[in-house]
Design a protein that fits this description.
By secondary structure, the chain is an alpha+beta fold. It has 7 helices and 5 strands, in the order ααββαβααββαα. It has 2 domains: 65 residues, Ribosomal Protein S8, Chain: A, domain 1 (2-Layer Sandwich), CATH 3.30.1370; 74 residues, 2-Layer Sandwich (Ribosomal Protein S8, Chain: A, domain 1). Helix 4 crosses helix 6. Keywords: Repeat, RNA-binding. It comes from Chloropicon laureae.
Protein backbone atom coordinates (compact mmCIF):
# COMPACT_ATOMS: atom_id res chain seq x y z
CA UNK A 1 0.00 0.00 0.00
CA UNK A 2 1.57 3.35 -0.99
CA UNK A 3 2.26 5.81 1.83
CA UNK A 4 -0.22 8.36 0.44
CA UNK A 5 -3.03 5.79 0.73
CA UNK A 6 -2.39 4.70 4.33
CA UNK A 7 -4.42 7.40 6.07
CA UNK A 8 -7.28 7.06 3.61
CA UNK A 9 -7.31 3.28 4.07
CA UNK A 10 -7.25 3.48 7.87
CA UNK A 11 -9.66 6.41 7.99
CA UNK A 12 -10.33 8.83 10.80
CA UNK A 13 -9.91 6.90 14.06
CA UNK A 14 -9.81 3.63 12.08
CA UNK A 15 -13.36 4.02 10.75
CA UNK A 16 -12.60 2.95 7.16
CA UNK A 17 -10.83 -0.27 8.13
CA UNK A 18 -13.58 -1.11 10.64
CA UNK A 19 -16.18 -0.48 7.93
CA UNK A 20 -14.41 -2.86 5.54
CA UNK A 21 -14.25 -5.50 8.27
CA UNK A 22 -17.93 -5.03 9.10
CA UNK A 23 -19.05 -5.08 5.45
CA UNK A 24 -16.93 -8.04 4.35
CA UNK A 25 -16.52 -10.21 7.44
CA UNK A 26 -12.73 -10.34 6.95
CA UNK A 27 -10.08 -9.09 9.36
CA UNK A 28 -7.94 -6.23 7.95
CA UNK A 29 -4.61 -5.34 9.60
CA UNK A 30 -2.67 -2.34 8.28
CA UNK A 31 1.01 -2.10 9.24
CA UNK A 32 1.95 1.51 8.50
CA UNK A 33 5.37 1.30 10.17
CA UNK A 34 6.90 0.28 6.83
CA UNK A 35 7.00 2.08 3.50
CA UNK A 36 5.18 0.84 1.55
CA UNK A 37 2.77 -0.26 4.25
CA UNK A 38 1.47 -3.81 4.33
CA UNK A 39 -2.14 -4.91 4.55
CA UNK A 40 -2.92 -8.39 5.87
CA UNK A 41 -6.44 -9.66 5.20
CA UNK A 42 -7.63 -12.88 6.85
CA UNK A 43 -10.88 -14.79 6.98
CA UNK A 44 -13.02 -17.05 4.78
CA UNK A 45 -12.02 -16.95 1.11
CA UNK A 46 -15.14 -15.05 -0.06
CA UNK A 47 -14.72 -12.52 2.77
CA UNK A 48 -11.04 -12.03 1.94
CA UNK A 49 -11.89 -11.52 -1.75
CA UNK A 50 -14.46 -8.83 -0.91
CA UNK A 51 -12.07 -7.10 1.50
CA UNK A 52 -9.25 -7.19 -1.07
CA UNK A 53 -11.53 -5.56 -3.63
CA UNK A 54 -12.51 -2.85 -1.13
CA UNK A 55 -8.88 -2.17 -0.17
CA UNK A 56 -7.81 -2.07 -3.84
CA UNK A 57 -10.59 0.41 -4.60
CA UNK A 58 -9.45 2.70 -1.78
CA UNK A 59 -5.79 2.50 -2.84
CA UNK A 60 -6.68 3.25 -6.47
CA UNK A 61 -8.89 6.15 -5.36
CA UNK A 62 -6.04 7.54 -3.28
CA UNK A 63 -3.73 7.40 -6.28
CA UNK A 64 -6.27 9.45 -8.25
CA UNK A 65 -6.53 11.96 -5.40
CA UNK A 66 -2.77 12.53 -5.44
CA UNK A 67 -3.16 14.34 -8.71
CA UNK A 68 -6.26 16.21 -7.60
CA UNK A 69 -7.33 16.69 -4.01
CA UNK A 70 -4.03 15.98 -2.29
CA UNK A 71 -2.20 18.64 -0.41
CA UNK A 72 1.10 19.36 1.23
CA UNK A 73 2.12 22.12 3.60
CA UNK A 74 5.40 22.88 5.33
CA UNK A 75 5.23 24.87 8.56
CA UNK A 76 8.21 26.28 10.44
CA UNK A 77 8.16 25.46 14.13
CA UNK A 78 10.33 27.35 16.63
CA UNK A 79 12.70 25.16 18.60
CA UNK A 80 10.89 26.05 21.83
CA UNK A 81 7.66 24.42 20.55
CA UNK A 82 9.11 21.24 19.02
CA UNK A 83 8.89 19.07 22.13
CA UNK A 84 5.31 20.16 22.81
CA UNK A 85 4.38 19.44 19.18
CA UNK A 86 5.97 15.99 19.17
CA UNK A 87 4.72 15.11 22.65
CA UNK A 88 5.90 12.36 24.96
CA UNK A 89 7.03 9.44 22.78
CA UNK A 90 5.41 11.11 19.74
CA UNK A 91 1.90 10.96 21.20
CA UNK A 92 0.87 14.49 20.18
CA UNK A 93 1.92 14.08 16.54
CA UNK A 94 0.26 10.66 16.36
CA UNK A 95 -2.89 12.17 17.85
CA UNK A 96 -2.93 14.89 15.18
CA UNK A 97 -2.50 12.23 12.48
CA UNK A 98 -5.26 10.09 13.97
CA UNK A 99 -7.68 13.00 14.45
CA UNK A 100 -7.12 14.66 11.06
CA UNK A 101 -6.19 11.81 8.70
CA UNK A 102 -3.10 13.72 7.49
CA UNK A 103 0.51 12.57 7.71
CA UNK A 104 2.66 14.83 9.94
CA UNK A 105 6.47 14.60 9.73
CA UNK A 106 8.58 16.75 12.09
CA UNK A 107 12.18 17.47 11.11
CA UNK A 108 13.73 18.76 14.32
CA UNK A 109 17.32 18.66 13.05
CA UNK A 110 17.05 22.33 11.95
CA UNK A 111 16.23 25.53 13.78
CA UNK A 112 13.50 26.42 13.19
CA UNK A 113 12.32 22.87 12.66
CA UNK A 114 9.98 22.08 9.78
CA UNK A 115 6.70 20.23 9.91
CA UNK A 116 5.64 18.59 6.64
CA UNK A 117 1.94 17.79 6.45
CA UNK A 118 0.59 15.66 3.59
CA UNK A 119 -2.70 14.03 2.68
CA UNK A 120 -6.09 14.99 1.32
CA UNK A 121 -6.51 18.76 1.22
CA UNK A 122 -9.18 18.89 3.94
CA UNK A 123 -7.06 16.65 6.19
CA UNK A 124 -3.98 18.80 5.62
CA UNK A 125 -5.97 21.93 6.47
CA UNK A 126 -7.18 20.40 9.76
CA UNK A 127 -3.68 19.23 10.67
CA UNK A 128 -2.20 22.67 9.88
CA UNK A 129 -4.74 24.27 12.20
CA UNK A 130 -3.87 21.80 14.98
CA UNK A 131 -0.11 22.35 14.54
CA UNK A 132 -0.54 26.14 14.45
CA UNK A 133 -2.60 26.00 17.65
CA UNK A 134 0.14 24.04 19.44
CA UNK A 135 2.86 26.39 18.21
CA UNK A 136 0.87 29.47 19.24
CA UNK A 137 0.07 27.89 22.61
CA UNK A 138 3.76 27.22 23.21
CA UNK A 139 4.60 30.83 22.36
CA UNK A 140 1.95 32.06 24.85
CA UNK A 141 3.35 29.79 27.57
CA UNK A 142 6.88 31.07 27.01
CA UNK A 143 5.82 34.72 27.15
CA UNK A 144 3.41 34.12 30.02
CA UNK A 145 0.31 35.04 28.04
CA UNK A 146 0.24 38.45 29.73
CA UNK A 147 0.05 40.63 26.65
CA UNK A 148 3.74 40.28 26.08
CA UNK A 149 5.04 40.02 22.54
CA UNK A 150 8.35 38.59 21.41
CA UNK A 151 9.81 40.08 18.26
CA UNK A 152 12.82 38.60 16.56
CA UNK A 153 15.33 41.25 15.68
CA UNK A 154 18.27 40.85 13.28
CA UNK A 155 21.61 40.96 15.09
CA UNK A 156 22.74 43.95 13.02
CA UNK A 157 19.89 46.05 14.43
CA UNK A 158 20.89 45.39 18.03
CA UNK A 159 24.15 47.36 17.94
Amino acid sequence: CPEIAVHVLIGLNGETVRGIERDTGARVDVNDSRNPCTVQITGRRECVDRACAAVDEIIQGSAREVTGGAGEEVIECPEIAVHVLIGLNGETVRGIERDTGARVDVNDSRNPCTVQITGRRECVDRACAAVDEIIQGSAREVTGGAGEEVIECPEIAVH
